[in-house]
Automatic annotation (TrEMBL):
Protein name: GNAT family N-acetyltransferase
Entry-linked InterPro entries: Acyl_CoA_acyltransferase, GNAT_dom
Domain annotation N-acetyltransferase: ranges: 127-269
PROSITE patterns the UniProt entry points to: GNAT
CDD domains recorded: NAT_SF (cd04301)
Length: 274
């Protein structure tokens, strides 16, 4: 793995992130070599990303970024990799952007098929992982409900907007959605998107009563195998630092690629986005 170019991984992953949220959005507009995306007040797709790697972002473009989100009643948000020019950071700071959080991007080459087959074997023997038929409305809804369950506070109802985005994501071309079943109960779920040699894993959740049983690792392994089937040579996953997703990915051979920054510009009357 010593020959891996982390800057190139960032270019590929950040471009895929931008393309993914554009596919889910209700409105989008290009920003330099990336995108600005809006999916409604409270939507997690409200962000700008994918830029700063191919060419310089101009001041006028950053002013357009602020206007794009502010005019829609939400805080402007920028997600950037550490490989963008320092001048971009300065220009965002000058416009009032502040750091909100970090996100970890991990990667794993998919060359060793035999090693991939051995992953995820610590899960219960009765566990069955099924790929969702995107034309099956009930199966898609089950995926969205279980996959999204870990991203809302326990005990709270998932919003209709969040549920609809999960269902739309499961039906996006190039995406595969998986549900883990144990004794007839859907206990975990996760998706992946494969194109241009990169498989990106996303939306992984395991229901609280079934955690610490190897189910998340089994879901990761199933999606890595699907990535190989789709011709990918690299897999990537994004996680909050230090949570089980990051730890499970590292147990299955993922390595740290980089830490991306999420910046926001607060403003009176502007709604934050997840």
């Amino acid at each position: 793995m010593n020959d891996v170019n982390l800057m190139e991984i960032a270019r590929r992953f950040e471009r895929k992130q931008a393309e993914a949220v554009v596919a889910l959005a209700t409105e989008s507009a290009p920003l330099a070599d990336g995108w600005m995306v809006f999916g409604g007040v409270g939507s997690y797709v409200n962000k700008s990303c994918g830029y700063g790697h191919g060419r310089e972002v101009t001041g006028a473009e950053l002013d357009a970024l602020v206007e794009f989100f502010s005019s829609r009643g939400v805080e402007p948000k920028a997600e950037i990799s550490p490989f963008v020019p320092v001048t971009l950071l300065h220009a965002l700071a000058e416009r009032g952007f502040v750091l909100r959080e970090f996100e970890t991007v991990l990667y794993r080459p998919l060359r060793d098929v035999e090693a991939l087959r051995k992953l995820g074997q610590g899960a219960p023997s009765e566990l069955v992982i099924k790929r969702v038929d995107p034309s099956d409305d009930a199966a898609v809804r089950t995926f969205a409900e279980v996959s999204g369950s870990g991203f809302v506070p326990e005990g709270e109802k998932m919003s209709d907007l969040f549920l609809s985005l999960g269902m739309k994501g499961a039906r996006t071309p190039g995406t595969d959605a998986f549900v883990a079943w144990l004794d007839g109960v859907p206990v975990g779920a996760g998706g992946c998107e494969s194109s241009e040699g990169l498989t990106t894993l996303f939306g992984t959740s395991v229901l609280p009563a079934y955690r610490r049983r190897g189910i998340q690792q089994a879901l990761i392994a199933a999606r890595l195998a699907r990535g190989v089937e789709r011709g990918s040579d690299l897999a990537a996953i994004m996680s909050a630092p230090g949570i089980p997703t990051e730890r499970n990915a590292m147990r299955l051979g993922f390595l740290m690629a980089y830490c991306r920054a999420v910046l926001v510009k607060h403003g009176a009357g502007l709604a934050p986005s997840p």
